[in-house]
Protein backbone atom coordinates (compact mmCIF):
# COMPACT_ATOMS: atom_id res chain seq x y z
CA UNK A 1 0.00 0.00 0.00
CA UNK A 2 1.22 3.49 -0.78
CA UNK A 3 2.35 5.34 2.31
CA UNK A 4 0.88 8.38 3.97
CA UNK A 5 1.31 11.87 2.59
CA UNK A 6 4.00 14.15 3.97
CA UNK A 7 3.26 14.90 7.59
CA UNK A 8 0.90 11.95 7.88
CA UNK A 9 -2.09 13.89 6.53
CA UNK A 10 -4.87 11.84 4.96
CA UNK A 11 -6.53 13.42 1.92
CA UNK A 12 -10.19 14.26 2.49
CA UNK A 13 -12.05 12.33 -0.20
CA UNK A 14 -15.63 12.16 -1.45
CA UNK A 15 -17.24 9.28 -3.32
CA UNK A 16 -20.02 10.21 -5.74
CA UNK A 17 -22.64 7.54 -6.46
CA UNK A 18 -25.98 7.08 -8.18
CA UNK A 19 -26.96 3.59 -6.98
CA UNK A 20 -25.76 0.81 -4.72
CA UNK A 21 -22.17 2.01 -4.71
CA UNK A 22 -20.27 -1.28 -4.57
CA UNK A 23 -17.02 0.45 -5.56
CA UNK A 24 -17.73 3.07 -2.91
CA UNK A 25 -18.05 0.28 -0.34
CA UNK A 26 -14.66 -1.09 -1.44
CA UNK A 27 -13.13 2.35 -0.98
CA UNK A 28 -14.69 2.68 2.47
CA UNK A 29 -13.27 -0.69 3.49
CA UNK A 30 -9.77 0.23 2.33
CA UNK A 31 -9.88 3.69 3.90
CA UNK A 32 -10.86 2.19 7.26
CA UNK A 33 -7.15 1.43 7.70
CA UNK A 34 -5.52 4.34 9.52
CA UNK A 35 -2.42 4.17 7.30
CA UNK A 36 -4.45 4.52 4.09
CA UNK A 37 -3.54 7.93 2.59
CA UNK A 38 -7.14 8.91 1.79
CA UNK A 39 -10.03 9.32 4.21
CA UNK A 40 -13.55 8.95 2.79
CA UNK A 41 -15.38 11.71 4.63
CA UNK A 42 -18.39 12.13 2.33
CA UNK A 43 -20.61 10.05 0.08
CA UNK A 44 -22.88 12.11 -2.17
CA UNK A 45 -25.56 10.95 -4.58
CA UNK A 46 -27.63 12.57 -7.30
CA UNK A 47 -30.50 10.20 -6.51
CA UNK A 48 -32.06 10.36 -3.03
CA UNK A 49 -33.03 6.69 -3.26
CA UNK A 50 -29.45 5.53 -3.95
CA UNK A 51 -28.90 2.44 -1.79
CA UNK A 52 -25.25 3.33 -1.23
CA UNK A 53 -26.24 6.27 0.97
CA UNK A 54 -27.49 3.85 3.63
CA UNK A 55 -24.26 1.86 3.35
CA UNK A 56 -22.26 5.03 3.99
CA UNK A 57 -24.42 6.12 6.91
CA UNK A 58 -24.09 2.69 8.49
CA UNK A 59 -20.31 3.13 8.26
CA UNK A 60 -20.51 6.50 10.01
CA UNK A 61 -19.75 8.52 6.87
CA UNK A 62 -21.44 11.86 6.17
CA UNK A 63 -23.84 11.80 3.22
CA UNK A 64 -25.38 14.35 0.91
CA UNK A 65 -28.29 13.86 -1.48
CA UNK A 66 -28.46 16.44 -4.27
CA UNK A 67 -31.31 15.39 -6.54
CA UNK A 68 -30.51 16.38 -10.13
CA UNK A 69 -34.16 16.32 -11.26
CA UNK A 70 -35.20 19.79 -9.97
CA UNK A 71 -32.40 21.30 -12.06
CA UNK A 72 -33.89 19.97 -15.30
CA UNK A 73 -31.42 20.26 -18.16
CA UNK A 74 -29.23 22.80 -16.36
CA UNK A 75 -26.39 20.40 -15.56
CA UNK A 76 -24.05 23.17 -14.46
CA UNK A 77 -26.55 24.48 -11.91
CA UNK A 78 -26.74 20.98 -10.42
CA UNK A 79 -22.96 20.77 -10.35
CA UNK A 80 -22.64 24.15 -8.65
CA UNK A 81 -24.93 22.87 -5.88
CA UNK A 82 -22.84 19.70 -5.65
CA UNK A 83 -19.62 21.71 -5.66
CA UNK A 84 -20.88 23.82 -2.76
CA UNK A 85 -21.51 20.70 -0.66
CA UNK A 86 -18.11 19.27 -1.55
CA UNK A 87 -16.42 22.48 -0.46
CA UNK A 88 -18.47 22.61 2.74
CA UNK A 89 -16.96 19.24 3.66
CA UNK A 90 -13.41 20.33 2.81
CA UNK A 91 -13.03 17.77 0.02
CA UNK A 92 -9.63 17.43 -1.65
CA UNK A 93 -10.19 14.42 -3.93
CA UNK A 94 -13.28 13.00 -5.65
CA UNK A 95 -13.86 9.39 -6.67
CA UNK A 96 -16.66 8.75 -9.15
CA UNK A 97 -18.06 5.38 -8.05
CA UNK A 98 -20.99 4.62 -10.30
CA UNK A 99 -21.98 8.28 -10.66
CA UNK A 100 -24.24 8.17 -13.69
CA UNK A 101 -23.88 11.76 -14.82
CA UNK A 102 -21.80 13.23 -17.64
CA UNK A 103 -19.95 16.11 -16.01
CA UNK A 104 -19.69 19.52 -17.65
CA UNK A 105 -16.34 21.09 -18.54
CA UNK A 106 -16.97 23.63 -15.76
CA UNK A 107 -16.97 20.97 -13.04
CA UNK A 108 -14.15 18.93 -14.57
CA UNK A 109 -11.87 21.93 -14.90
CA UNK A 110 -12.66 23.00 -11.34
CA UNK A 111 -11.53 19.59 -10.02
CA UNK A 112 -8.95 18.75 -12.69
CA UNK A 113 -6.27 16.49 -11.29
CA UNK A 114 -8.35 15.81 -8.17
CA UNK A 115 -11.16 13.86 -9.85
CA UNK A 116 -10.81 10.16 -10.70
CA UNK A 117 -13.13 7.56 -12.19
CA UNK A 118 -13.27 3.80 -12.66
CA UNK A 119 -14.41 2.45 -16.01
CA UNK A 120 -15.28 -1.19 -16.82
CA UNK A 121 -12.94 -1.71 -19.77
CA UNK A 122 -9.27 -1.48 -20.66
CA UNK A 123 -9.29 2.08 -21.94
CA UNK A 124 -8.88 3.39 -24.56
CA UNK A 125 -10.89 0.36 -25.74
CA UNK A 126 -14.66 0.50 -25.23
CA UNK A 127 -15.30 3.94 -23.73
CA UNK A 128 -18.90 4.71 -22.87
CA UNK A 129 -21.61 2.22 -21.95
CA UNK A 130 -22.34 -1.49 -22.56
CA UNK A 131 -18.63 -2.29 -22.36
CA UNK A 132 -19.07 -6.00 -21.63
CA UNK A 133 -21.49 -6.56 -24.49
CA UNK A 134 -19.15 -4.74 -26.87
CA UNK A 135 -16.08 -6.64 -25.66
CA UNK A 136 -17.82 -9.96 -26.29
CA UNK A 137 -19.03 -8.82 -29.70
CA UNK A 138 -15.49 -7.77 -30.63
CA UNK A 139 -14.10 -11.17 -29.67
CA UNK A 140 -11.33 -9.82 -27.42
CA UNK A 141 -9.44 -12.28 -25.23
CA UNK A 142 -8.75 -9.77 -22.46
CA UNK A 143 -11.11 -7.30 -20.87
CA UNK A 144 -10.82 -5.42 -17.58
CA UNK A 145 -11.09 -2.10 -15.79
CA UNK A 146 -9.31 1.23 -15.69
CA UNK A 147 -8.94 4.01 -13.14
CA UNK A 148 -8.18 7.35 -14.76
CA UNK A 149 -8.11 11.06 -14.09
CA UNK A 150 -11.23 12.74 -15.46
CA UNK A 151 -10.96 15.23 -18.32
CA UNK A 152 -13.78 16.96 -20.22
CA UNK A 153 -13.86 14.24 -22.91
CA UNK A 154 -15.71 11.21 -21.54
CA UNK A 155 -13.47 8.26 -20.54
CA UNK A 156 -10.41 9.89 -22.07
CA UNK A 157 -8.32 11.10 -19.13
CA UNK A 158 -4.81 9.90 -18.22
CA UNK A 159 -4.71 6.33 -16.95
CA UNK A 160 -3.66 5.71 -13.34
CA UNK A 161 -3.98 1.91 -13.17
CA UNK A 162 -5.55 -1.02 -15.03
CA UNK A 163 -6.35 -4.67 -14.38
CA UNK A 164 -7.04 -7.27 -17.07
CA UNK A 165 -9.27 -10.33 -16.80
CA UNK A 166 -9.62 -13.21 -19.28
CA UNK A 167 -12.65 -13.49 -21.53
CA UNK A 168 -13.68 -17.14 -21.34
CA UNK A 169 -15.72 -19.40 -23.63
CA UNK A 170 -19.36 -19.24 -22.64
CA UNK A 171 -19.10 -15.79 -21.08
CA UNK A 172 -22.24 -13.67 -21.08
CA UNK A 173 -22.26 -9.95 -20.35
CA UNK A 174 -23.40 -10.68 -16.79
CA UNK A 175 -20.71 -13.28 -16.16
CA UNK A 176 -17.99 -11.06 -17.59
CA UNK A 177 -19.31 -8.06 -15.67
CA UNK A 178 -19.06 -9.95 -12.39
CA UNK A 179 -15.47 -11.00 -13.13
CA UNK A 180 -14.52 -7.40 -13.94
CA UNK A 181 -16.36 -5.98 -10.92
CA UNK A 182 -14.40 -8.20 -8.54
CA UNK A 183 -11.21 -6.61 -9.88
CA UNK A 184 -12.67 -3.11 -9.75
CA UNK A 185 -13.08 -3.55 -6.00
CA UNK A 186 -9.32 -4.24 -5.75
CA UNK A 187 -8.08 -1.76 -8.31
CA UNK A 188 -9.94 1.36 -7.20
CA UNK A 189 -8.56 1.46 -3.63
CA UNK A 190 -5.08 0.80 -5.01
CA UNK A 191 -5.37 3.65 -7.53
CA UNK A 192 -6.79 6.04 -4.94
CA UNK A 193 -3.86 5.23 -2.65
CA UNK A 194 -1.42 6.03 -5.47
CA UNK A 195 -3.02 9.44 -6.04
CA UNK A 196 -3.65 10.36 -2.40
CA UNK A 197 -0.18 9.20 -1.35
CA UNK A 198 1.53 11.21 -4.08
CA UNK A 199 2.91 8.27 -6.08
CA UNK A 200 0.92 9.40 -9.14
CA UNK A 201 -0.15 12.90 -10.02
CA UNK A 202 -1.85 14.62 -12.91
CA UNK A 203 0.36 16.92 -15.01
CA UNK A 204 -1.70 19.74 -16.56
CA UNK A 205 -0.88 21.20 -19.93
CA UNK A 206 0.59 18.05 -21.48
CA UNK A 207 -1.01 16.81 -24.70
CA UNK A 208 -4.14 14.88 -23.69
CA UNK A 209 -2.90 15.07 -20.09
CA UNK A 210 -0.48 12.63 -18.55
CA UNK A 211 0.53 11.30 -15.17
CA UNK A 212 3.82 11.68 -13.38
CA UNK A 213 5.08 9.00 -11.02
CA UNK A 214 7.25 9.21 -7.94
CA UNK A 215 9.90 6.48 -8.26
CA UNK A 216 10.48 6.50 -4.50
CA UNK A 217 6.87 5.63 -3.68
CA UNK A 218 5.54 2.16 -3.06
CA UNK A 219 3.68 1.10 -6.18
CA UNK A 220 3.09 -2.54 -5.22
CA UNK A 221 0.00 -3.68 -7.15
CA UNK A 222 -2.99 -5.16 -5.34
CA UNK A 223 -3.36 -8.90 -5.06
CA UNK A 224 -5.42 -10.01 -8.06
CA UNK A 225 -7.44 -13.17 -8.45
CA UNK A 226 -7.31 -14.15 -12.11
CA UNK A 227 -7.70 -17.91 -11.81
CA UNK A 228 -9.60 -19.50 -14.67
CA UNK A 229 -12.56 -21.65 -13.57
CA UNK A 230 -12.37 -25.34 -14.48
TrEMBL record:
CDD domains: FMT_core_GART. The record marks 155 as: Raises pKa of active site His. GO terms for molecular function: phosphoribosylglycinamide formyltransferase activity. Its EC number is 2.1.2.2. It catalyses: N(1)-(5-phospho-beta-D-ribosyl)glycinamide + (6R)-10-formyltetrahydrofolate = N(2)-formyl-N(1)-(5-phospho-beta-D-ribosyl)glycinamide + (6S)-5,6,7,8-tetrahydrofolate + H(+). It is an enzyme of class 2 (transferase). Gene3D superfamilies: Formyl transferase, N-terminal domain (3.40.50.170). Keywords: Purine biosynthesis, Transferase. (6R)-10-formyltetrahydrofolate binds at residues 75, 100-103, 117. Residues 206-230 are annotated as: Disordered. It holds the Pfam family Formyl_trans_N. Residues 12-192 form the Formyl transferase N-terminal domain. N(1)-(5-phospho-beta-D-ribosyl)glycinamide binds at residues 21-23. Catalyzes the transfer of a formyl group from 10-formyltetrahydrofolate to 5-phospho-ribosyl-glycinamide (GAR), producing 5-phospho-ribosyl-N-formylglycinamide (FGAR) and tetrahydrofolate. HAMAP family: PurN (MF_01930). Belongs to the GART family. This is Phosphoribosylglycinamide formyltransferase. The lineage of its organism: Bacteria, Pseudomonadati, Pseudomonadota, Alphaproteobacteria, Hyphomicrobiales. The gene is purN.
